[in-house]
Design brief:
Length: 414
C-alpha cells in the first residue's frame, strides 16, 4: 500500500478521543468523523508500525445516526485537511458534530467503561448511567481565540490540528449566544483588527450578572471579578481563575457531590485543587464541620475566602500550595479516618506523589472529579494499589460535541 493511497474501511467503534476505529490488512486504523457500522473511504496520513492514522475521504454507507454538522467548520466527508488551504482546514475541537447527541453520549459511556476496565481492572458494573447535558450546543460561557496575521490576512479563531495555523471563526455553535454576538461586534469593528498582534489571545466570557465581556492576553489580577450564578448561590470568580465552561452541567456535578457529602456526614473534608472554593463550600453547606481547601492559585484562594465569608462559613481553612504540600501540612491535625478527600486535578491527573500521600494518610473516602478519563483511570489503578476500591463512577457530559467529558468517581478505603 502506498503511503497516500486511499482504501475502504468498515468502522467498528469510536475510541476515547473521538476517532473511529477499523482494521485494514490486520492493522488498526484511526479516522475522525466516522461512525460505527459505516463503510468509509479513508486516506492514510501517518502509517505507523502498530496503527495507521487516516483522514475521511467519503462515507460510502452512512449510519442512520449520522446528521449534518451544526458548524460549517466541522469535519465532514467533504472537508479533508490534505486538500484544503491552511486557512480552510476543519476545526478539530468537535468530534461529534456529525452524530445524534444520544448516540454521542452512549459512545462516551462505552469509552469510559472500557478505560476503567482496561486501565484499572474495574468492572463496568460500578458505572452509573451518564448525566446528559441539558443542551448540546450554545453552552460554553468562555471562548479563547487566537489572532494570526499573514500579510494583509487577519484570522481570529481556533488553532487547527497542526497547532500552528489559526482557523478563522466567525461564530462557534458551542458558545453562548451573547458571546457570539460580542465576537461578531468586535469583528465588524475595523479598529479591533488594527489592534491585533500575531499570536495574541482573545478571551470572550459571559455570566448572567456581568453579561458578555472580552479581553486581550492574560487577565490581570486587579481586573474586577466576575460573578457566576451557581447551585451554591452567586460565586465570585477572578477572570484568570478556573471555572467550568458549562454552568448548567457544573451545577449538576456540584449538586451531586454536595448531596453525597450530606449523606455521608464525615468529620472533615479536604478540597485539593480547590480554585475559588466550589467543593469546599459545598462540603461546608452540606454540614461537614471541618473543611480545608488547597490550591496554588492566589487570586482563586482570595475569591474562595471571600465566597466563604459571604456565606458566613467560618469552618473552612484555606491553604496556598501544591496538592502534595497541602496534604503534608494537614497531616498532623486532620481526622483522616473520617475525612472525605475531594480532588479535581488538571488533565494531568493526581500523579504518583499525591497518591502516595493519600495512601499514607488514608482518608475514609476520595471523591475524584476528572476532566480526563485516561489519567483518572491510570490514577484509579494506583489508588487501588494504595488500599482503595472504586465504589462508583459516573460520567457527566460537560463538553458535548467534543471528545471530552467529566466524571465523578468515589473511592473507599479497604
Amino acid at each position: 500500500m502506498l503511503h497516500h493511497e486511499a482504501f475502504d474501511l468498515t468502522v467498528d467503534d469510536v475510541a476515547f478521543g473521538g476517532k473511529a476505529i477499523g482494521r485494514h490488512e490486520g492493522k488498526v486504523c484511526f479516522v475522525p468523523g466516522a461512525l460505527p457500522g459505516e463503510r468509509v473511504r479513508v486516506r492514510p496520513v501517518h502509517d505507523r508500525e502498530a496503527f495507521t492514522d487516516a483522514e475521511l475521504v467519503a462515507v460510502l454507507d452512512p449510519s442512520p445516526d449520522r446528521i449534518p454538522p451544526a458548524c460549517p467548520l466541522a469535519l465532514s466527508p467533504n472537508i479533508q485537511s490534505s486538500v484544503l488551504s491552511l486557512q480552510s482546514r476543519p476545526c478539530p475541537g468537535c468530534s461529534y458534530q456529525h452524530v445524534a447527541y444520544a448516540v454521542e453520549l452512549a459512545l462516551k459511556q462505552r469509552q469510559f467503561e472500557s478505560l476503567l476496565e482496561r486501565h484499572a481492572g474495574v468492572s463496568r458494573e460500578v458505572c452509573r448511567p451518564p448525566v446528559a447535558a441539558p443542551v448540546p450546543l450554545g453552552y460554553r460561557n468562555k471562548m479563547v481565540l487566537h489572532a494570526q496575521l499573514d500579510g494583509r490576512d487577519v484570522r481570529v479563531g481556533y488553532y487547527a490540528a497542526d497547532n500552528a495555523t489559526v482557523i478563522d471563526v466567525p461564530a462557534c455553535p458551542l458558545a453562548m449566544e451573547p458571546i457570539n454576538a460580542c465576537l461578531a461586534e468586535r469583528r465588524a469593528d475595523p479598529s479591533f483588527r488594527r489592534t491585533l498582534r500575531d499570536a495574541m489571545s482573545l478571551t470572550f466570557r459571559w455570566t448572567e450578572r456581568d453579561g458578555a465581556l472580552w479581553w486581550r492576553g492574560q487577565a490581570g489580577e486587579k481586573d474586577v471579578w466576575l460573578v457566576e450564578a451557581t447551585v451554591l448561590g452567586p460565586l465570585s470568580v477572578p477572570r484568570g481563575s478556573f471555572y467550568q465552561v458549562n454552568p448548567a452541567m457544573a451545577n449538576l456535578l456540584v449538586g451531586a457531590v454536595r448531596d453525597r457529602l450530606a449523606g455521608l456526614q464525615p468529620a472533615a473534608a479536604v478540597d485539593l485543587f480547590c480554585g475559588i472554593g466550589v467543593f469546599a463550600l459545598a462540603a461546608a453547606l452540606a454540614g461537614v464541620p471541618r473543611v480545608a481547601g488547597v490550591d496554588v492559585d492566589g487570586p482563586g484562594l482570595k475569591a474562595a475566602a471571600y465566597n466563604a465569608r459571604q456565606r458566613q462559613l467560618a469552618s473552612i481553612a484555606w491553604h496556598a500550595g501544591t496538592a502534595d504540600e497541602g496534604l503534608g501540612n494537614l497531616a498532623a491535625d486532620f481526622p483522616w479516618r473520617d475525612t472525605v478527600l475531594i480532588v479535581d486535578p488538571p488533565r494531568t491527573g493526581l500523579g504518583r506523589e499525591v497518591i502516595r500521600q493519600i495512601g499514607r494518610h488514608r482518608p475514609a473516602r476520595t471523591i475524584y472529579i476528572s476532566c480526563a478519563a485516561d489519567t483518572m483511570t491510570r490514577d484509579a489503578k494506583w489508588l487501588q494499589e494504595a488500599g482503595y476500591r472504586v465504589e462508583s463512577s459516573q460520567l457527566f457530559d460537560m463538553f458535548p460535541r467534543t471528545a471530552h467529558f467529566e466524571s465523578v468517581t468515589e473511592f473507599t478505603r479497604e
